[in-house]
Automatic annotation (TrEMBL):
Keywords: Hydrolase
Region (Disordered): 1-24, 99-134
Lineage top rank: taxon: Bacteria
UniProt entry tagged with the keyword Lipid biosynthesis: no
Domain Prokaryotic-type class I peptide chain release factors stretches: 14-30
Biased composition (Basic and acidic residues): 1-12
Stated name of the protein: Aminoacyl-tRNA hydrolase
InterPro entries (UniProt xref): Pep_chain_release_fac_I
GO biological process: rescue of stalled ribosome
Biased composition (Basic residues): 115-134
Chain segments annotated as coiled-coil in the UniProt record: none
């Protein structure tokens, strides 16, 4: 995978949630922004794939946006964002295997029918016993 780091934009801000004084004074939340259409490293087909598969992460301006704020340090959050970016790209570019339709084997069919019969017998045995002698 190519190095996209020169095309990244970073924004930092203070994280939300618990953490006391550290959260209130340190900008540890990192927002990674990557403009998909302006990328020089992606081909037009790859850009279309990214738009199609990662549309939930893309803003109206065309930025792929990731936010990381789980760690206490800005550097760790930045590294998490970069790692998450590359994982998302790899997932978007991965080819999905074509499923070949197959029929179940004879043994699998017989096992399924035997299981159904056993289950039916168990249910039938729970019913009320009716005597026609009365």
């Amino acid at each position: 995978m190519e190095d996209f780091s020169r095309e990244f934009e970073y924004r930092t801000s203070r994280s939300g949630g618990p953490g006391g004084q550290n959260v209130n004074k340190v900008s540890s939340k990192v927002e990674l922004r990557f403009h998909v259409d302006n990328s020089e490293l992606l081909t037009t087909e790859e850009k279309a794939l990214v738009h199609e598969k990662l549309s939930n992460y893309i803003t109206q301006e065309g930025y792929l946006q990731l936010i990381c704020q789980t760690e206490r340090s800005q550097l760790a959050n930045k590294e998490n964002c970069i790692q998450k970016f590359y994982e998302l790209l790899a997932k978007a570019f991965a080819k999905q295997k074509v499923r070949k339709a197959t029929k179940p084997s004879r043994a699998a069919q017989q096992e399924r029918i035997a299981t159904k019969k056993k289950h039916a017998d168990k249910k039938a045995s729970r019913g009320r016993i009716r005597h026609s002698d009365y």
